[in-house]
């Protein structure tokens, strides 16, 4: 039996731990009094998870057998290092290897140095000089801050700004906010997907591809968010991917994990989460994260068949190759319910109430429907909003479109000053993705020629 400490707000991680018969006691530290965590934890501590001292003090009280980190800020602040110093092993990389997420310049240079495929054309600037001249030579580009921005810092020319002067001003703002560098990359055309892997420093076990939907509104419109929902398919592909695409993403994850050890001398133990884009010229690496994706974690852990505590233990022990990791062959559609005005003006409805009674009474709950709380507070049984994503529902079925219907019915039943994207997982949006991929690869022309 195991005592486990979960760090962060991930209700999905907590549910996966609770499903294990090996769990004895679950301790959770979170920045919010999330009701999903509260209901499952032996003890829930509300505290600053990105402060190593706060986490270590709680770990000394709880005395867990191991810890798992579910969010990026604790990793970037060295929480895994601090836990190691008091003898608590962690599923989550040390600060040196977590640079893969919190430093985009480190990641680009790592991939280039070790000859790993997938880098787009890029240039790193550690000061303002030369940025404007360089931008004027680029037909289109993406600006990425070197540092954590909650998934909202990336800006695209011709979408977020239309003049070079505006792009330079944005770079000035990033330097003024103490970002140590900005990375300017070519703008790519293709379809993005997330591919996550378990890694113990030497051995790797892959999850299934998931597509996240970053834009706030239906039709892929509006500002970028932390993610409005995601979907996965029963065949463990996506409609616009081939088995070779997934195999290449898996190989890039493996090579990146190995390169981290060569570069830092530390074994990476945790989740390697590659964000990829399939383009006309093959796969490109968009970014790397050092923990489960959010919302992608809800898709993959809803389908996980292997005991999650077993996976955590072999990651820590370095024996991941001795365990077979399995996922059910079903489709999932995840839809996030978020405060009205999210992401820009969500604070206007902060402390608003949400009612999820219809979901809790659903006969599909825990069978074909999962609900996961996110950044909400539990005030004596009343669920209140913060200014971030509130809760998510996941439909699970044999087909993507059945899963979407389950998720949409649940999301539409939530009452309060909230909204969600209704189009995620629909046949119309999936076809849009396929048509887009066909146009840029020429596959549609080949299909027509064949017919």
Task: Describe this structure as you would to a colleague.
It is a single chain. This protein has 451 residues and is of the alpha+beta class. It folds into 3 domains: 10-91, Rossmann fold (3-Layer(aba) Sandwich), CATH 3.40.50.20; 121-186, 2-Layer Sandwich (Dna Ligase, domain 1), CATH 3.30.1490; 209-243 and 278-429, Glycinamide Ribonucleotide Synthetase, Chain A, domain 4 (Alpha-Beta Complex). The chain is built from 16 helices and 23 strands. It has helices at residues 11-18, 35-40, 52-62, 72-76, 79-85, 99-102, 104-113, 131-135, 164-176, 243-264, 296-303, 308-317, 357-360, 400-412, 427-441, 443-450, and strands at 2-7, 23-30, 43-46, 66-69, 90-91, 122-125, 141-145, 155-156, 182-186, 190-199, 204-206, 211-212, 215-217, 221-224, 229-232, 270-279, 282-289, 331-339, 369-373, 376-379, 382-385, 391-397, 418-419. The strands form 6 sheets. Strands 12, 15, 18, 19, 22 and 23 form a 6-stranded antiparallel beta sheet that branches. It has a 5-stranded parallel beta sheet with strand order 3-2-1-4-5, with helices on both faces. A 4-stranded antiparallel beta sheet has the order 6-9-7-8, with helices on both faces. A hairpin with a 2-residue loop joins strand 16 and strand 17. Helix 3 (52-62) crosses helix 5 (79-85). The longest helix has 22 residues, at 243-264. Residues 445-451 have low confidence and may be disordered.
